[in-house]
Specification:
The protein is α/β, with parallel strands linked by helices and 123 residues long. It has a single domain, classed as 2,3-Dihydroxybiphenyl 1,2-Dioxygenase, domain 1 (Roll). Helices cover 24% and strands 33% of the residues. The protein has three helices and eight strands. The chain has helices spanning 17-27, 60-68, 79-88, and strands at residues 11-14, 31-35, 42-47, 50-56, 71-75, 100-101, 107-112, 118-122. Strands 1-4-3-2 form a four-stranded mixed sheet. The longest helix has 11 residues, at 17-27. The protein is globular, with a radius of gyration of 15 Å.
Length: 123
C-alpha cells in the first residue's frame, strides 16, 4: 500500500505570538489546542478541520520579513457567514480582498494577520 498524506499543518511565523494567538482566536474564531509556555512561543490552534501552529521567532525583524512572504488558504463551508462573523469580531478585510468570486471559481476574502501573513478564506 502506498503511504497516504492525511493533512497538512501550516506553521505560521510570529514576531509576537500572544498578539497572533489573540487575532486567530478572538477575531477568526479558532480555539487554542496547546501551548508550550505562558506566554507561548509555540501554540496550536484549530477551527473545524483546519489546524495551524504559530511559532514565535526571536528575531522580530526576520519574523516580519518571513510573515510578509507567507500565505495560507483555508477552505470553508459557509463563506458568507464567516465573512460576516469575521467583520463582527473586528476583523479587517484586506483592501484587495473583499468577498468575491474569483475567475477560477472560488468565493473568497483575504486578511492579514498581525505578523503580515496573507490569509485567504475560500469556498
Amino acid at each position: 500500500m502506498d503511504p497516504i498524506i492525511k493533512w497538512a499543518i501550516p506553521v505560521l511565523p510570529a514576531a509576537d505570538t500572544t498578539k497572533s494567538l489573540h487575532w486567530w482566536t478572538e477575531v477568526c474564531g479558532f480555539k487554542e489546542t496547546f501551548r508550550d509556555a505562558t506566554p507561548p512561543t509555540y501554540v496550536g490552534i484549530n477551527r473545524g478541520d483546519a489546524y495551524l501552529h504559530i511559532a514565535g521567532m526571536s528575531d522580530k525583524e526576520l519574523a516580519c520579513k518571513v510573515g510578509d512572504q507567507t500565505m495560507v488558504r483555508l477552505a470553508v463551508k459557509g463563506i458568507e457567514a464567516l465573512y460576516a462573523e469575521y467583520q463582527q469580531r473586528g476583523g479587517k478585510v484586506h483592501p484587495n480582498g473583499p468577498l468575491q468570486t474569483k475567475p477560477w471559481g472560488t468565493k473568497e476574502f483575504g486578511a492579514i494577520d498581525p505578523n503580515g501573513v496573507c490569509v485567504t478564506f475560500q469556498e
